[in-house]
Amino acid sequence: MKKSSEPAFNAQHRLRRIEGRHNPLVKQLRQAFSHAELTEGGDCAIEGVRILEEAIRSGLRFSAVFFRESAQERAGRLLPQIGAQVETLLLPDKLFDSLLPSESPQGVAALVHLKGFSLDDVFERLQVGPIVVLAGLQDPGNLGTILRSSEAFGSAGVILGEGTVSAFNSKVVRGSAGSVFRLPIVHAHGRAGTEKLEEISEKLRRKGTRLIATSSHKGKSLEQADLKGAVAIFFGNEGAGLPREVAAKVDEFISIPHTPQVESLNAGVAASIVLYEAARQRK
Hints:
The chain is α/β, with parallel strands linked by helices. It has helices at 24-35, 49-57, 75-78, 93-99, 119-123, 140-152, 170-176, 179-182, 197-206, 244-247, 267-282; strands at residues 16-17, 43-47, 61-68, 87-91, 108-113, 131-134, 157-161, 185-188, 210-214, 220-221, 231-235, 252-255.
């Protein structure tokens, strides 16, 4: 077998060792993870080999990659896929572990720049599938599942209302399996630069969009519901459901038939079933 004349990739020369906690990039990674929000430059903190590979596959721009000293062999696998201009830092194990929320870090983390989306971007995709609107959903695992199902079954995008867990939470990012990198997601919590769900509901209605909410105990059965056309589907808090002021805006409620022994379905499971049915009807 003929040997390649090209030299093997050497990741060592790209790794810059950082010892202190006050390095600007180290501080950005810590804050992005601890606050579950983007950095001032619009970067999201991510961790784990699989998620980094999803970010690469999604064509995201990396600002910095961080390796745990005892796991630096992973650099040889990942760095050939990341531009040479990206900062690549090697951190002592103790420092690296102090930055990440995971109890069992895989030894690699990064700051990646996410594409920003507006409400108009989501509205323009209504022909793709339903808009998913979340009001007060608090479990990161549920949101991760919903984002993954939204991409899998062709949602136009996801609107995160007030009280909903951040899409930049590390558990949400992992649970979405990369969908958070590609799916149009808009935060609507009423703070500066955003609108409240009641205002968004009125905008949707003016665009001829039907507003449908899920309920565990009332409304039309899912198998009888019409989920074709321009539709926005609302999902509420895991325990309390939709806020009263939001529920008052919807056009109809739907419920998923299940055995009476089960009081209600997990929010991530329920949303996935509804999104599958919407995709089935459209086909």
